[in-house]
Design brief:
five-stranded antiparallel sheet, 2 domains
Length: about 375
């Protein structure tokens, strides 16, 4: 019987080694369509130093924030479908990932979770605390765990521009939009909240452009330049390109990015205030019954002092028509914090209680990485009607 724990330990170590060193026939293949997204593609070790937020671009390209090197790594996963969504909830995801990396759940830090809408496959970015090993773990339709090979990958690395003798401390999001990839982050400059624009095709070692942001924080009653965008989505309005971002304490603001010059400062327009004491985590939009909605989930750091529900993790949906509201900044719509809904078109979503990360699968469903009494579970859940 003593051989069983030893065997399990060996298997865990083998899987961790496989994560970086196993050969892959798929990694050696060229995805033709991804060539429109990527240029000067590299083959080999992605050399991710501190893994962070992720999202999917078209053609199976996974966008990964590498905070340690202040760059975005775009990986050709060749995961292009067909859609095979998760069939049933996967319990104890954190324990399963930790075991695959040869440690326990206290020994890992889960940075993000996303889903490829073209295939339904779920991706989790994680770092092993003991030695800083960075990993991306996937879950298929049956909940089977597998590592994405980061040692033998087709990828490009796009550095984020930064002023001389300055550095980027965090990358809070990376998203694809028509003609470019956008990233948000924070540097140690005076105007520290940044938006980065990376033109397509994403080209290895070719940096993009950077803009500073200034945002009116409704709950704070002042303009701020240091608070970073916590999560964001690209957005178009009357042919113009915007970023819609959410901030701690918790304004939702839009930033026009059409025809903005390199190193310019963009002044955001706050359109909705969700209430103080919250840190947004994820954001996406969906369309249901002819209406467009924005979903955002948050981590309430004032939960013990002023709880809003059964968990510090909660979320809302917002009618997208608020993004075109006439009343903004000081007059922006404020969520009625004592009620589940109000004003009209701003609603607490019950399914988002205990949700640590959420990602859109389609206009009917989302994937949730949910806190379950200290364990983490993966599930597919219906979006509200």
């Amino acid at each position: 019987m003593k051989r069983i724990p030893l065997l399990m330990s060996c298997l865990a170590v083998l899987l961790a080694v496989t994560l970086y060193f196993s050969p892959s026939d798929e990694a050696n293949a060229v995805t033709k369509d991804s060539l429109a997204m990527l240029a000067n593609v590299q083959q080999g070790d992605t050399d991710i130093t501190r893994i962070g937020r992720m999202s999917f671009a078209p053609q199976g390209v996974l966008l990964v924030a590498d905070i340690g090197s202040a760059s975005v790594v775009a990986i050709d996963t060749q995961d292009t479908g067909p859609v095979k969504k998760l069939k049933e909830r996967v319990n104890d995801v954190d324990k399963k990932i930790a075991a695959a990396l040869g440690t326990d759940k206290a020994g890992i830090n889960i940075a993000d979770m996303t889903v490829n809408p073209a295939s339904g496959k779920i991706y989790v970015s994680v770092q092993r605390k003991a030695d800083g090993l960075n990993a991306i773990i996937t879950f298929d339709e049956n909940g089977k765990l597998a590592p994405l090979n980061l040692k033998k990958a087709r990828y490009v690395r796009v550095p984020l521009p930064v002023a001389d003798q300055k550095k980027i401390g965090n990358i809070t999001g990376v998203e694809f939009t028509d003609g470019r990839v956008l990233a948000a982050g924070q540097s140690n400059e005076e105007f520290s909240s940044k938006i980065y624009s990376l033109p397509l095709p994403l080209t290895h070692n070719k940096p993009g452009e950077v803009y500073s942001t200034e945002t009116y924080h409704v709950a704070h009653g002042r303009w701020e330049t240091r608070a970073p965008i916590q999560s964001f989505i690209p957005y178009q309005e009357e042919g113009e390109d915007y970023i819609v971002g959410s901030f701690a304490c918790t304004p939702i603001a839009k930033f026009k990015i059409s025809d903005i010059k390199q190193n310019a400062t963009i002044k955001g327009t706050s359109v909705v205030e969700l209430g103080s004491g919250n840190r947004p985590v994820d954001m996406f939009t969906y369309k249901k019954n002819g209406k467009n909605w924005l979903i955002t989930n948050t981590d309430r750091f004032h939960h013990e002092r002023r709880p809003l529900g059964p968990s510090q993790y909660w979320g809302v949906r917002v009618d997208m028509s608020y993004l075109q509201a006439d009343k903004t900044n000081e007059e922006a719509a404020r969520r009625v914090v004592t009620e589940k809904s109000g004003p009209n078109g701003i609603e607490v979503v019950d399914a988002l209680f205990f949700a640590k990360h959420v990602a859109k699968l389609n206009n009917d469903e989302m994937v949730i990485l949910r806190d379950n009494e200290g364990a983490l579970d993966l599930e597919v859940t219906k979006l509200p009607e």
